[in-house]
Amino acid sequence: MERSSFMFWKVGLLVLALMEASSATLSPTGINYEVVALMAIKNDLIDPRNVLENWDSNSVDPCSWRMVTCTPEGSVSALGLPSQSLSGIISPAIGNLSNLQSVLLQNNAISGPIPSAIGRLVKLQTLDLSNNTFSGEIPSSLGDLTNLNYLRLNNNSLTGPCPESLSKIEGLTLMDLSFNNLSGSLPKISARTFKIIGNPLICGAKADNNCSAGNPEPLSFPPGQSDFGGKSHHVIIAFGASFSAVFVIILIVGFVVWWRYRHNQQIFFDVNDQYDPEVCLGHLRRYTLKELRAATDHFNSKNILGRGGFGIVYRGDLNDGTVVAVKRLKDFNAAAGEIQFQTEVEMISLAVHRNLLRLCGFCSTENERLLVYPYMPNGSVASRLRDHINGRPALDWTRRKGIALGTARGLLYLHEQCDPKIIHRDVKAANILLDEDYEAVVGDFGLAKLLDHRESHVTTAVRGTVGHIAPEYLSTGQSSEKTDVFGFGILLLELITGHKALDFGRVANQKGVMLDWVKKLHQEGKLSQMVDKDLKGNFDRVELEEMVQVALLCTQFNPSHRPKMSEVLKMLEGDGLAEKWEASQKVETPRFRSSENPPQRYSDFIEESSLVIEAMELSGPR
pTM score, two decimals? Predict the structure, then answer.
């Protein structure tokens, strides 16, 4: 009886702690006020491309919606809708998304005033409303955003004075108010970079330092933050003070958490090192650190299969004779805790497809996070592109076409058939593995999300490899499934040329980057010059033309012009390419203000970006 009472007490504490995180978005009647706010935002926007199609008022969880990012606790932390051809106005209901840390709505046609309700978003770190048609005055309430790092209101039609209240924001890295119709005197702005050029009533013929055009600062995607520990402490004190009152609360909260568990199936409980080897979490096996140390010979450098931004991969030989690849994560978020890590790992493991690398299990200790995968005997595409078997390339044209199709099927599953959808964020030849039959297997998917819950205010939000990263990701840190489409386009060029995009200039003795070079050869009708010389002319000319066109469609600078992976797969299979290609040739160049000089080449985007890029290489069999 004493043991059961103790267990009930313990479960009650856990339930309350979990509820502390989950109840923030629920009203007393069980309505998710964040869903209500997001639907109000959707209703006030005009969405010709239906990018908000899966925003559903009947949903209780907006975290799986497109362009919405949530904290580990399930609150909406970021709203990212750049370059989506949106118009209409911003609903004042945005002020009810109290946990927002990032709002990215740049490069649309949104009009009307900037809602003063944005000033209620006290956790906001990034606000980018640039390149729209906002009018009216800048709300003085923006001065209440004391955590703001980046404020971009440039290239709109804002009028009136610059509010004195903006001088209260002390931690600004960038404030850009350029190219509006602002007037009056300027308050003392403490931003590291403050841009006001293009406001003729302020910057007339006699311009001062504030009117000079500085270099644009990068936007970083703000991390999820949590004060779970402190709140739990107060909950425990309250629990001890009044057992009878909390007993009633436990019953109520227990029902709510049970209901959420039934719907989400993502609550885990810790399993210590003295576990039963047969116990699994879902279909995942939990390994001990001792077991994986033995399998990898204490992580011996001789067993290293690959290195990269996510960690080091080792070959492992388990006691039962199974050969595995053990990924030792170098960058895990220790503060996030056991339950969050297991939840994220389980989410990744639910993505099961023949063209996705299956997660076998994991190990989690205070100082280590390890993931266990099947061993891929033929390594990665990057490692095999230059290999030869009996004097012939290991990857002939037929295999390269098959790799393109298999990768497309894997990404299609992640983007459009997996729930919740997963954005890879680092699609490249080194992350496409090959099984014993040279079937393409997409690896490392979901790890960017798994590792990006960081606590600091400065985060290297852009994960990827130079030469593969989409322009909009370079400039804003905002990723979407169209970011993966861009990476897939570069992968196609790697398959065609036999070169890794990262090493292209050095290996091929070419200036610039691979994409710009291919575009030039395509315009000149010299496709054969871009084909891997190791193929010695053994390729299908028609398929080459088609693959190049698909690659160029995937790597268009405007993400809204790129096809979805379902369309990419159809085109690679010979359906609809001619129509898509013809339509792409008629697309007008986006309208820019005369004062702007948009980059014309991909290399220009790379040169203009000052984001910290993690160049990842995970070559070799994993």
Answer: 0.53
